[in-house]
């Protein structure tokens, strides 16, 4: 009876926490992004600390370095980001029209009215997705505010991550201290592996497809390369969408031959990603079936849009790793042994740095 009550209580607390996360999506996604960025920059901060630089200057230098890199990318490409969809809108529409004509007059011989209705719905969605200049300006202000908040959060996570974790552990009962500590380390290790692997895979995808578009002389190769890089962070669906857009745009701006070549390049890059890069880079993190990943991405997208699709897989991977750790490291039923370490044990020595060191050890 007591166990059932405890389970119901935990379920109620979990549902309340989930409801609160839905009510404040900006804070939720900002914190999630800060954790991802902190996991990405932890090795850099750890290297600075090993040279003797104190925690605060190391964290500040890491944040400033990341801001400089992102600022350079924004200076080179960011001004095109808001207009990327507008750049792609007209070629995409023309490509859809060519497919519509082929579907009606080609071997399929589909009903013209049905094809026209489908075409109009798709084109309407494309134009709605492309932000207007005013909406783009408002979006830029919101994004800038969120990035400032992310920068502060990343600084404090890199500077005081070990103290924060120690503070949490001090409030855990001594019998569960080792289990909670180990589960937290497993979660951080999984998150660190995921974000660094995802960035590497996205870069390889963008370079491979972008180079092909540049060689073929596709006018919008830069916008398509940016779309490929961002889409690579959404497993399965993102690469398919960005590849289809690249083929359609090439079909309109160049010709059918170039579109077929781009299709081949996209398929080759995706095959290399799926059969080589994902197993080598992400295999130790995502011990998940593709069907599970697809359901997670779809659910996250339906609940939170693009941010939800981006965060669905890392959240799922971290949750799975924590549950596996708890399953493999149950509590000592007698209440003795290593699981009874006092909650007042010395603070963790650099939890962020140890996460990076654990990755190197792999």
From TrEMBL:
One Gene Ontology term of the biological-process aspect is: transmembrane transport
- Which is one Pfam family of this protein? AI-2E_transport
The record's family statement is: Belongs to the autoinducer-2 exporter (AI-2E) (TC 2.A.86) family.
This chain belongs to the protein called Predicted PurR-regulated permease PerM
Q: Which residues form a coiled coil?
A: none
Protein source organism? Blastococcus aggregatus
As for membrane topology, the entry says: Multi-pass membrane protein
Q: Where are the transmembrane segments?
A: 6-22, 29-48, 60-82, 139-158, 198-222, 229-253, 259-281, 293-320
Q: What PANTHER family does UniProt report for this protein, alphabetically?
A: PERMEASE PERM-RELATED, TRANSMEMBRANE PROTEIN
Identify the GO cellular component terms for this protein.
plasma membrane
Task: Give the source lineage, highest ranks first.
Answer: Bacteria, Bacillati, Actinomycetota, Actinomycetes, Geodermatophilales
Keyword Protein transport part of the UniProt annotation: no
């Amino acid at each position: 009876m007591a166990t059932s009550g405890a389970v119901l209580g935990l379920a109620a607390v979990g549902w309340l926490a989930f409801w609160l996360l839905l009510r404040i999506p900006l804070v939720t996604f900002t914190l999630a992004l800060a954790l991802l960025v902190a996991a990405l920059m932890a090795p850099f901060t750890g290297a600075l600390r090993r040279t003797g630089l104190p925690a605060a200057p190391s964290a500040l230098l890491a944040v400033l370095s990341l801001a400089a890199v992102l600022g350079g990318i924004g200076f080179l490409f960011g001004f095109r980001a808001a207009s990327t969809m507008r750049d792609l809108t007209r070629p995409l529409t023309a490509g859809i029209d060519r497919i519509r004509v082929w579907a009606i007059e080609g071997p399929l011989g589909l009903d013209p009215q049905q094809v026209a209705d489908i075409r109009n719905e798709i084109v309407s969605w494309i134009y709605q997705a492309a932000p207007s200049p005013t909406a783009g300006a408002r979006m830029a202000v919101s994004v800038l505010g969120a990035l400032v908040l992310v920068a502060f959060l990343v600084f404090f996570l890199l500077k005081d991550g070990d103290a924060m974790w120690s503070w949490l552990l001090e409030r855990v009962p001594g019998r569960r201290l080792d289990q909670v500590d180990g589960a937290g380390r497993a979660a951080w290790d999984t998150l660190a592996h995921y974000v660094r692997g995802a960035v590497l895979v996205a870069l390889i995808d963008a370079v491979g497809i972008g180079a092909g578009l540049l060689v073929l002389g596709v006018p919008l190769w830069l916008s398509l390369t940016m779309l490929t890089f961002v889409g690579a962070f959404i497993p399965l669906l993102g690469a398919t969408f960005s590849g289809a857009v690249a083929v359609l745009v090439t079909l309109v701006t160049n010709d059918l031959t170039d579109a077929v070549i781009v299709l081949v390049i996209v398929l080759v890059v995706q095959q290399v990603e799926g059969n080589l890069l994902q197993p080598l880079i992400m295999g130790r993190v995502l011990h998940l079936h593709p069907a599970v990943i697809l359901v997670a991405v779809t659910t996250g997208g339906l609940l939170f849009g693009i941010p939800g699709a981006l965060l669905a897989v890392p959240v799922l991977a971290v949750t799975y790793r924590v549950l596996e750790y708890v399953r493999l490291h149950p509590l000592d039923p007698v209440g003795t042994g290593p699981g009874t370490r006092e909650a007042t044990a010395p603070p963790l020595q650099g939890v962020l740095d140890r996460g990076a060191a654990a990755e190197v050890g792999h």
